[in-house]
Specification:
heteropentamer; A alpha+beta (597); B mainly alpha (337); C mainly alpha (332); D alpha/beta (347); E alpha/beta (360); B: 337 residues; mainly alpha; MetI-like fold; 74% helix; C: 332 residues
């Protein structure tokens, strides 16, 4: 009878084997009794997580040992946290496969593990990397890269031109279907190959063969362009051209990239441990031609910025990326404030008009809205100075930046005047205006409310806010038919060339411009000069001229550049800050970073 | 009993099917596919991706495949049916029956939903079971104490805990607790990477908060159930036989009053191991709930479908377990089924 | 037969006293019991108080719930601390003009809290009515009709029960959030509908159970026996007798709906903002929690005040619900 | 039954009434594995103006019989002729109209009144349904009915829970009377009442019968009450009728051993009689109606059982003077009780 | 221990009160009675008359709160149980005094096997080990006429029929050879043939064991055959107490007379009109200083409305709580007068109805 009495408790006990089974999948401690969660693994927060992370094998079963046995197994991890840079990251990346990744949080990882033919330096100039030099032909339709001699992967195996040919092929391959396939569409045959049907073998093979990339010898990569592309050496620095090893990819299947041992790279660091959602570690690649000073890097993923701040304070992070909402708190703390750095990023956000729709088909209405934007208050108060106001398109630090642009600065009188001059004449005559924004960030609402309130107070215009999940916003913005009347949006540079800013976005045949209904033949002409000329100075001048026309036409009222902002432990030195540092300061020149005790 | 069990298990199948149908239908209403990025993706690339994930097929039924097949002279009804069901939904269901919930889109197809569940669910399961254990181990005694010492300070404490626990949503208590810990003690629970392996102190705070609602509910239910049983004639009989308090409570009251408590325990435990999105979000627990919320944002259809089905299945299993335990506790039920 | 006449003729007879007593329906009895329950009455009073706050929000709120711009915003500052909190940044130090500080857009937290009462009450009551309408109808029909109709309806409620509810809300919000339907009343309509769609099943089961037992009650048989039509039996005999548990259920549905709105807003898919100063539902507590969580380091009072507001209203409703259950079911 | 008087003498004529409730298996397919034969082939008549008593122990099907006659449960088979019309064949509006003529009074005075309706509504409802009165006249009529059942008309706005059990039973009777029925089925109308109240209700029922020329089917398990009020008494066992006889006759000379045992088990409030009384104590319990014994259902407990009883079901035979019994040894049953004190009023 | 010349149970001026929302109810009001060894005392009364509360008070099982023993003594074998501690009471309950209840369906714990429920008191009071207790339990079951007792010990209550359960209850009640058995309406929930079985069983066991019994019932027929003496209760008070024979032959309290007159008897013919007690059972909340039966009494006089009649000796061994000595003639004439009144009242009520029917 008593046995039955405790049936309930027995049931609970019965559940334990289930737990044990679950626990067994992970190689650490056996599960403790349900009542004793204190019987835990190593104490929290005492040792920096990086210390034991690399030795704790991840749950992934390692692939069979590579045939060319790595000389330097990734388990040879740094033994102390002392010389490892611990970087706070917010969102864990979805996929870090060079030809498939698309987010900067993914790219920053790949850029430590790999290196393209060229790379960006601390001034965002394109400098030699795997290739020691490159050469365009006269009309910039062929580019020839010459590799450094004796390049090696981190496992000591040789890196040759074929590896880069493979990278280009894999990126353009329709079977790969990476989201950045189109960035190589200047490469002859790439667009065709990307749209070929895999099952139609003959056409597929033909398309593959037609791809304009080849390796005449082990140290030379030749790329045939579809049209002149004098900026293509910069494109060659991008992650899509990172030479991941073909045999590793083929052996590992779709998930090859999850295995740090398959990610044999040629960059300054080498993946050593990947723990999903938690932490990714790198060790120095001693085979890199320009060995790094750090022993390793740790990317620590904490998407609650509040938790991350505490982690920084308790010494678990070297670099912390505060959320805009935390800036007041950081500034209130004397110590944190002294370690806080903020500098403009390679991005521009503005008020985007749909010029196909009333009332924004009227330039005067656009002008009125552009003048009405109180950019300074917006950045200083609403965004806690996490942005800097701008009146031009290409951001500071990128070639083509126009420091002299002053049109459409905040001016209430001018705004009212412009509205009065418009075909509508007054705010009352305007049709209904809806402004769309993404709700994922709680602060977005306050930001858009501010903008809408401004229009109401300055112009007397009632703007309806429409908050949607970010996926819906991007879907709406992708379709010409649903493109919102009014929204905040902009561009984050893929590579620091004005072509990426001006032609890719505002050319009348660019999808972005088309969605907003923008196109100006005069600007197109100037862009053509910039896109084809091999004279860098002439190119930049042409783009700047085009930019002036575009700003005057106001498809967008530039508003601000978001800053890169970090709290950096003073023991970290040697980082060079660039506008493109959207993950950590000095991310494009990590070899020079060092840690002093 | 066996027949009863089989019937109950079979009844779960149509329920799961309709749940899958509803979820699928709703997800199809949402604009924006898994491959919509903020930046432009080449349409050809999107097409290829859609083909790879079978998203180029019709949503519900594939009539073109049927007519094509019959044009080709296929008469085998099985083949034709398969062609008819060669749709996104049809294929999903057919694969799901075989235990394959399809690749997740966010991993670009590199990982299957069942693998994600396998990887992340143990953490949620541990969290949920700890919360359930807490709820039972605290809630039961508190409820029993409240009922036995009716209208005393114990009773009032148990009532207040129960009322507050059931009414205040966990995410409020969770947020306030984290706020309190960080403001007063400067503690922000950042957990080392392996903190979530096995059982560890990392689970304490989230499990306490997660279990609070259920604990309070169990307290209330136990209390009222004990009070109900206390009034029963057979308790009077036991007292009339001269049985002491301890015997009356443990032998005569507990098991009878457990019956309604057990009834809610199944769904409650199922709810605890699945319903911890908010708590996982607040306490940064790398479990399946957090994964799920993320997958909705990224329109990861297969993850959403898989998680919904998985959760629905768990709830069904929870209820099934209750039925079995119920019979164990109550001989009247046992002999009836 | 002599009983009545003699009863009336004698003093001290219960029959005579009864004529003087007021008529006591079961409802008035229940109200009498409820009035004796202190906790429930405090809850009821609090809910009444909040209703007044909701109605009088424009009068009570010291500032507009909409966020300011320009000079006013510079003066208020974003993330200003609660009045009693000192900060080394003069711009952040608390002011008694903004007792609970300001939010990320410089809005006054107290004023938002006051306006947020409206959403919570509306979001609590309206879905409750929807839920009851669907649930009671389904339960009545299902329980009374019996047979195949009943078993199909019950299978259907099984499905609804199997839907993980929070997941379902999220999916529905994602699916319909951007449509006109999803944006009606700042998205409140969609919350109402999706909440009702999931929660009616519980009510339906409750009502069905009641109907099944009432159907066997002798007074229903008596109604059949005197030839009362089925629809009249349902509305006059069965429905009024299911009301007590329905009322109790309703008292527990309300906090459930309030919490659901808060959770959805917390996940960023709840009600949508409307900046127009004339909009009656400019903000909700759940949204404040959502914002407050990200501002936890800079202005914790957004989170604290809205969390306390939610907690107190749900406690009030649960206390009232408990009281109603005790009052309406005198057995306990 | 053919031996009974002319057809129009019989208000109610029940032939081979069966009421079976299917029982489902708990197996996979939920097959119907049997039936509870609550009522299994009853045939009897109720004469105009008489009271027919129906007794039996709980579960013998007596209440089900009442409900089957009223068509509250539709019988599985058989016919219920009321005033020449077969109630089992009519439905809908027609059946509703017939309901005016047949009424029921329930056992539980607490469950049989809708707690959310006032007394006036409860009694007024049948009047409105059958449009017997309209407007203000309904209220006048309800007040009259209250007076008839011995309640003060002031009670019209009160709710049932404000009344005691006896008063509630009076309200139930008033409701039944409201449609001016011919036939009332009294389903254990006094068994839930206190002893001192029972007599009030029994007297009331008798008075009403005389005044309104009512016919009663009086269902009860209390043999003394049944015998007191009935002209004829029918005894049921496991869904079947085992004996039917004029009340006094049944008492003096039971022809079924079950009736005999039943009679001998009833305690008599007289210590002297109790001391000397001879008792037949039946052994065991009533078998399950789901799985009744073979042959005569009573053979498992019968003191007079013979082999034949185990295999062959005894027919319901008329032994003269309206005395029917279903027993192979009916004539061998000898009275064990003393003569009744007063016999002259017996039919 | 046993004191031969004292009664086994001597209840003196027992008062039990219950607190309710509407006020205090005196459920048992100044009740005194005795039970001698081996004797069977019947307590008769309608629902709410306080008979069950009296029995629970003896066992000290009044649920407190809301109830409490407000006064009086319960002398069991000379010791006042009111003063006993809970621990001392536990040694009495189920051992020297045991009790069986009305509803055998709910009085047994549904989730425990019959064997467990039977052996627990044997182990507690008789210091038996599990084996002995089980053997004894089987013996007891056999004694109350349950076939295959060994097997049935492992059954659950729901596997027994109502009559069998009551047998189990009786076996449990007798298991420790109590000196006093309180049977609280033991047959009310049973069918008449089963009731006969149980009554016979009780009578047999009483003879075999010599246990004193308090037999509580509302059925005057059952009392007649089961008891030596009877106490009639009304509105929480004892209103008449005498030997069973005397009570039936010569009742002295109008309530008792009314009861006897109002029940139909199997051994009388049809047509005899019953003589009911008019009015309603008393409102227990009422505090008026009057005879509680006055409103329903046929012989009521002015003084009855101002005086609570004490239980007085009207004859040797016969007490009744009535101020008057009602004669047989008075009783007869009251009955016939009542019948006439009743008929007249109905007549007048019907007149208007019939008149209207005619006009309609």
């Amino acid at each position: 009878m008593r046995k039955r009495m405790i049936a309930l408790f027995a049931l609970l006990v019965l559940i334990l084997p289930v737990l044990a089974a679950c626990g067994a999948a992970t190689p650490t401690t056996a599960p403790a009794a349900t009542t004793a969660p204190t019987a835990a693994t190593g104490g929290e927060a005492t040792a920096p997580p990086v210390a034991d992370a690399p030795t704790t094998a991840p749950t992934d079963v390692p692939a069979a040992a590579p045939t060319d046995a790595p000389a330097d197994p990734p388990t040879a991890a740094p033994t102390s946290a002392g010389n490892v840079l611990r970087i706070h990251q917010v969102a864990y990346p979805d996929v870090f496969d060079p030809q498939k990744s698309s987010y900067s949080g993914e790219i920053v990882l790949l850029s430590q593990n790999y290196e393209g033919l060229t790379r960006l330096d601390e001034n965002l100039e394109t400098v030699p990397a795997a290739a020691e030099s490159w050469e365009y032909n006269a009309d910039a339709t062929v580019i020839t890269f010459t590799l450094r001699p004796d390049l090696k992967y981190s496992d000591g195996s040789p890196l040759t031109a074929e590896n880069f040919v493979y990278a280009a092929q894999r990126n353009c391959d329709s079977a790969t279907a990476g989201e950045y396939q189109s960035i190589l569409f200047d490469l002859a045959g790439c667009a065709d190959f990307a749209s070929s049907v895999v099952t139609d073998t003959a056409a597929y093979d033909a398309a593959k063969a037609g791809l304009g990339v080849s390796a005449p010898d082990a140290n030379t990569v030749v790329m045939q362009m579809a049209q002149p592309a004098p900026y293509f050496h910069t494109v060659a620095s991008l992650w899509v051209m990172y030479p991941a090893k073909q045999e590793m990819i083929e052996k590992g299947g779709e998930t090859w990239w999850q295995d740090p041992e398959a990610q044999i790279g040629n960059g300054p660091f080498q993946f050593s441990s990947i723990v999903e959602d938690q932490q990714i570690d790198f060790v120095r690649n001693d085979n890199y031609w320009n060995p790094a000073k750090l022993d390793g890097l740790s990317f620590i993923y904490i998407d609650d910025s509040s938790v991350a701040l505490e982690a920084y304070k308790s010494g678990q992070l070297d670099i912390f990326s505060p959320d805009p909402s935390q800036i007041p708190a950081v500034q209130e703390d004397a110590e944190l404030a002294s370690l806080y750095v903020a500098y403009e990023g390679a991005n521009t956000t503005g008020l985007q008009f749909n010029t196909k729709l009333a009332p924004f088909d009227d330039l005067k209405v656009r002008e009125a809205f552009a003048y009405a934007l109180d950019r300074e208050t917006y950045c200083e108060v609403i965004r806690n100075a996490d942005c800097l106001q701008t009146l031009t398109w290409i951001p500071k630090g990128i070639p083509g930046y126009d420091a002299d642009e002053t049109r459409f600065a905040f001016d209430e009188a001018a705004a009212k005047a412009a509205l009065a001059e418009s075909s509508y004449g007054s705010a009352d005559a305007l049709p209904e205006i809806t402004m769309m924004y993404a709700t994922n960030d709680p602060a977005n609402q306050a930001r858009h409310e501010f903008v809408a309130n401004t229009f109401r107070d300055v112009l007397g215009v009632e703007v309806t806010l429409q908050g949607l999940p970010s996926k819906d916003v991007s879907a709406a913005k992708k379709d010409n038919a649903t493109y919102p009347q009014l929204s905040l949006g902009g561009w984050i540079g893929d590579y620091p060339d004005p072509q990426n800013w001006v032609s890719v976005f505002w050319n009348s045949n660019a999808t972005f411009a088309q969605r907003q209904g923008y196109g100006n033949p005069a600007a197109d002409e100037l862009m053509k000069v910039g896109d084809t000329s091999t004279d860098q100075a002439a190119r930049i001048a042409a783009y700047q001229e085009a930019q002036k026309i575009i700003i005057g036409d106001l498809p967008i009222a530039p508003m601000y550049n978001r800053v890169n902002k970090y709290v950096i432990n003073p023991r970290v030195t040697g980082y060079a800050m660039t506008p493109a540092d959207d993950q950590f300061p000095g991310q494009w020149s990590s070899t020079s970073i060092s840690i002093t005790e | 009993m066996i027949g009863f069990l089989i019937r109950r298990i079979l009844a779960v199948i149509p329920v799961l099917f309709v749940v899958a149908f509803i979820t699928f239908f709703l997800m199809k209403q949402a604009k924006g596919g898994p491959f919509d990025q903020e930046k432009e993706v080449n349409p050809a690339t999107v097409k290829t991706l859609n083909a790879r994930f079978g998203l180029d097929k019709p949503t519900w039924i594939n009539t073109t495949a049927v007519s094509r097949a019959s044009d080709q002279g296929v008469a085998n009804p099985l083949t034709l049916t398969r062609a008819f069901l060669d749709s996104q939904f049809g294929n999903y269901i057919i694969n799901a029956v075989q235990g394959d919930l399809g690749p997740t889109y966010s991993s670009k197809g590199t990982e299957n939903v069942q693998d994600v569940i396998k990887r992340k669910f143990p953490i949620s399961l541990r969290l949920g079971l700890l919360a359930a254990a807490l709820a039972v181990l605290v809630g039961l005694p508190l409820g029993i104490l409240g009922a036995l010492k009716q209208n005393t300070i114990f009773d009032y404490i148990s009532l207040i805990v129960a009322t507050i626990g059931t009414s205040v949503p966990t995410f409020v208590t969770g947020l306030l607790l984290t706020l309190f810990l960080s403001r007063v003690f400067g503690v922000k629970p950042i957990k080392p990477i392996d903190a979530w392996d096995g059982y560890s102190t990392a689970y304490i705070a989230p499990a306490c908060i997660l279990g609070l609602n259920t604990m309070a509910y169990i307290t209330r239910l136990t209390r009222s159930s004990m009070l109900e049983v206390k009034r029963q004639d057979y308790i009077r009989t036991a007292r009339a036989k001269g049985m002491g308090d301890r015997v009356v409570i443990t032998r005569h009251m507990l098991r009878n009053s457990m019956i309604p408590v057990v009834t809610i325990l199944g769904p409650a435990v199922a709810g605890l191991v699945t319903g911890s999105f908010i708590i996982e979000n607040i306490f940064r627990v790398p479990g399946i709930g957090d994964e799920f919320v993320g997958s909705i944002g990224s329109r990861d259809y297969s993850m959403i479908m898989g998680a919904t089905l998985f959760f629905a299945l768990l709830v069904a299993l929870g209820n099934l377990t209750v039925d079995v335990v119920y019979g164990f506790l109550d001989p009247r039920i046992r002999s009836k089924s | 037969m002599a009983t009545t006449s003699s009863e009336m003729s004698r003093p001290g007879q219960p029959g005579v006293e009864e004529f003087q007593r007021p008529v006591r329906s079961l409802w008035s009895d229940a109200w009498g019991r409820l009035r004796r329950n202190k906790l429930a009455m405090i809850g009821l009073f609090y809910i009444f108080f909040l209703s007044l706050v909701a109605i009088a929000a424009p009068v009570l709120a010291p500032h507009s719930p909409a966020r300011p711009i320009g000079a006013e915003l510079r003066e208020r500052g974003a993330y200003r601390q609660a009045a009693w909190v000192e900060s080394n940044n003069e711009k952040k130090t608390g002011l008694w003009t903004y007792p609970l500080g300001t939010d990320s857009g410089g809005g006054d937290v107290l004023s938002r809290l006051i306006y947020g009462t409206r959403v919570s009450l509306v979001v609590g009551f309206i879905p409750m009515i929807f839920t009851l309408l669907i649930g009671v109808t389904m339960g009545l029909v299902s329980g009374y009709a019996g047979g195949a109709l009943d078993s199909w309806m019950m299978r259907f409620t099984d499905v609804v029960f199997a839907l993980p509810d929070i997941l379902f809300f999220i999916i529905v919000q994602t699916a319909f959030g951007k449509t006109t339907f999803g944006r009606t009343f700042n998205g409140l309509l969609l919350i109402f509908v999706s909440f009702s769609v999931v929660s009616w099943a519980g009510v339906a089961r409750l009502v069905r159970g009641q109907v099944l037992s009432l159907k066997e009650k002798e007074f229903v048989e008596a109604a059949h026996a005197v030839g009362v039509k089925n629809n009249k039996i349902l509305t006059r005999h069965i429905l009024p007798n299911t009301l007590a548990p329905i009322i109790v259920a309703a008292a527990f549905i309300v906090p459930g709906a309030i919490v659901t709105e808060a959770v959805l807003s917390f996940l960023g898919i709840g009600i949508q903002p409307n900046t127009s100063p004339t909009n009656p539902f400019p903000t909700s507590w759940g949204q404040m929690i959502f914002e407050g969580k990200s501002g936890i380091d800079s202005q914790p009072w957004i989170l604290i005040s809205s969390a306390i507001a939610i907690a107190s209203i749900t406690i009030a409703f649960v206390a009232l619900g408990d009281g109603l259950r005790d009052a309406l079911d005198p057995r306990n | 039954m053919q031996a009974q008087a002319a057809a129009n003498d019989n208000l109610v004529d029940i032939k081979d009434l069966k009421m079976h409730f299917p029982v489902k298996s708990n197996g996979l397919l939920r097959r119907t594995i049997g039936a509870v034969k609550a009522v299994d082939g009853l045939s009897f008549t109720v004469k105009r103006g008489e009271t027919l008593g129906l007794v039996g122990e709980s579960g013998c099907g007596k209440s089900t019989t009442g409900r089957a006659i009223l068509q509250l449960h539709r019988p599985t088979s058989g016919s219920v002729l009321f005033d020449g019309q077969d109630l089992t064949k009519i439905k809908g509006e027609e059946l509703r109209r017939m309901r005016r003529k047949v009424q029921i009074i329930f056992q539980d005075p607490y469950a049989s009144l809708n707690p959310r309706m006032t007394v006036g509504d409860i009694i007024g409802e049948p009047i409105r349904v059958h449009k017997l009165r309209s407007g203000k006249d309904v209220r006048i009529r309800v007040e009259e009915l209250l007076k008839v059942v011995g309640l003060n008309p002031y009670f019209i706005n009160r709710y049932p829970h404000e009344f005691s059990g006896g008063q509630r039973q009076r309200i139930g009777i008033a409701r039944a009377l409201a449609v001016e029925p011919d036939f009332i089925i009294c389903d254990e109308p006094v068994s839930a009442l206190d002893v001192s109240i029972q007599a009030q209700i029994i007297n009331l029922l008798q008075d009403l019968q005389n005044e309104f020329n009512l016919t009663y089917l009086f269902i009860a398990h209390n043999l003394s009450v049944v015998k007191h009020i009935s002209d004829r008494v029918a005894v049921m066992y496991l869904g079947k009728m085992v004996e039917l006889a004029p009340a006094a006759q049944l008492y003096v000379h039971p022809m079924h051993p079950y009736t005999q045992a039943l009679l001998s088990a009833v305690p008599i409030p007289d210590p002297e009689i109790e001391k000397t009384r001879q008792r037949i104590i039946l052994q065991g319990d009533v078998p399950s109606p789901l799985n009744p014994p073979s042959g005569c259902y009573f053979h498992t407990r019968c003191p007079l059982v013979i082999d034949k009883c185990r295999v062959e079901e005894p027919p319901f035979t008329d032994y003269g003077h309206g005395h029917f019994a279903a027993c192979w040894r009916a004539t061998e049953v000898t009275p064990i009780l003393s003569e009744p004190i007063q016999q002259e009023t017996a039919v | 221990m046993a004191k031969e010349n004292t009664p086994l149970l001597d209840v003196r001026n027992l008062q039990v009160q219950f607190k309710t929302q509407d006020g205090i109810i005196n459920a048992v009001n100044n009740v005194s009675f005795t039970v001698n060894r081996g004797e069977t005392l019947g307590i008769v009364g309608e629902s709410g008359s306080g008979k069950s509360v009296t029995s629970l008070a003896i066992m000290r099982l009044i649920p407190a709160p809301p109830g409490k023993i407000a006064g009086g003594q319960i002398l069991f074998d000379g010791e006042d149980l009111v003063d006993y501690s809970e621990a001392e009471m536990r040694k009495i309950r189920g051992n020297r005094i045991s009790m069986i209840f009305q509803d055998p369906m709910t009085s047994l714990n549904p989730v425990l096997r019959i064997g467990r429920q039977m052996t627990e008191s044997l182990q507690l009071h008789m210091n038996m080990n599990a084996k002995q207790a089980r053997d004894r339990a089987a013996e007891l079951l056999a004694m109350v006429g349950i076939p295959a007792p060994d097997k049935r010990l492992d059954d659950y209550p729901h596997q027994f029929s109502g009559g069998m359960r009551q047998r189990v209850m009786i076996a449990m009640g007798l298991s420790c050879n109590p000196e006093l058995l309180i049977a609280d309406e033991p047959t009310t929930a049973l069918d008449v043939t089963i009731q006969a079985q149980i009554l016979e069983l009780l009578n047999r066991l009483k003879d075999e064991t010599g246990t004193a019994i308090i037999f509580i019932t509302h059925d005057l027929g059952v009392v007649a055959g089961m008891t030596d003496r009877v106490m009639v209760m009304y509105a929480g008070r004892a209103v008449e107490q005498t030997s069973t024979q005397q009570l039936y032959d010569n009742p002295r309290m109008p309530y008792t007379m009314g009861l006897l007159d109002s029940i139909p008897r199997l051994d009388e013919g049809k047509g005899e009109r019953l003589t009911p007690i008019r009015g309603l059972p008393p409102d227990m909340l009422e505090k008026a200083e009057r005879c509680p039966f006055a409103p329903r009494c046929d012989f009521v006089q002015e003084v009855c409305w101002t005086t609570i009649p004490p239980l007085r000796s009207v004859e040797p061994n016969h007490q009744a709580a009535c101020l008057f000595d009602i004669t047989h003639e008075q009783r007869q004439s009251a009955a016939s007068k009542k019948a006439a009144e009743e008929a007249a009242a109905l007549e007048s009520a019907l007149e208007s109805v019939i008149a209207e029917e005619h006009s309609a």
